[in-house]
Hints:
It is a single chain. The chain is mainly alpha-helical. It has a single domain (21-305), classed as Rhopdopsin 7-helix transmembrane proteins. The chain is built from eleven helices and three strands. It has a three-stranded mixed sheet.
Amino acid sequence: MDSAANATSPRGFLLQGFFEFPHLRPALFLLLLAVHLTTLSGNLLILVAVASVPSRPPMLLFLCQLSVIELCYTLVVVPRSLADLSMPGTARGSPISFLGCAVQMQMFVALGGAECFLLAAMAYDRYVAICHPLRYAAVVTPGLCARLALACCVGGLAVSLGLTAAVFHLPFCGSRLLVHFFCDITALLHLACTRSYAEELPLLGACLVLLLLPSSLILASYGAIASALRRLRCAGGRRKAASTCTSHLVVTFLHYGCATFMYVRPKSTYSPRLDRTLALVYTNVTPLLYPLIYSLRNREITSAIFRVLGRLRPAQARGHARAE
């Protein structure tokens, strides 16, 4: 057994990943690679589509920022996971340095936190658009959108730095093996030597800031929206207004549902292999669903994507003609 000093030395940790399933690793590699490339393509397509729109409504700017966050979110975790899956042999795990593990966890939490705050900003945008449509252009200005976007990033970064410092100041003794494919908070807390609830307080504090505060703002916004929709006499107007919120609500439930289930629970209920499987879903499947949800539900995004694809086809045809 390693001592606490050895465990926190520059040797760092071992990421077990899926090394105990050698026969499944090739299929899992191909599946994750296909999902990762599709996620990157979908989010990049949304970015290009938004950039091609001459006048961009605030909601499109928020969608653009969401796509950037999702791109970075998957790049923090998935490429290393793919590299580990492609490694031959039956090694016990893939080594990661102490600093590398801390940086990966910090970036993962920062991006997830920024998305929590961004979803609250998008809920406020929908609230103003539905409850105060005549004042929308005057309230939700490009300057306000830029300030909200910056606040989301700064808020996620601040919380992630504090949480990372708290977690990596804990003593890690015994095994250095993380039963996970990236440096997740719950996996690291599971290796901590302490057995009291004190080490969970930073995580609970981060959850209060990243989950409870934005979700309270989202609930307040949609409470006001629901009240405004009940006062509408036109059924068509209610359906149109509600449809603009559907995609945001679906993404919000997915993001907050996964985060709440994974992190808002006591350490005693932690199951390494179950959490690793669940993390595989929320780091790969949910980022894939987000661009699909928004591209299918948002008419402006859909129209912009078709315009971009329409421009690409003639360009490809001209390229083939030149080649011939």
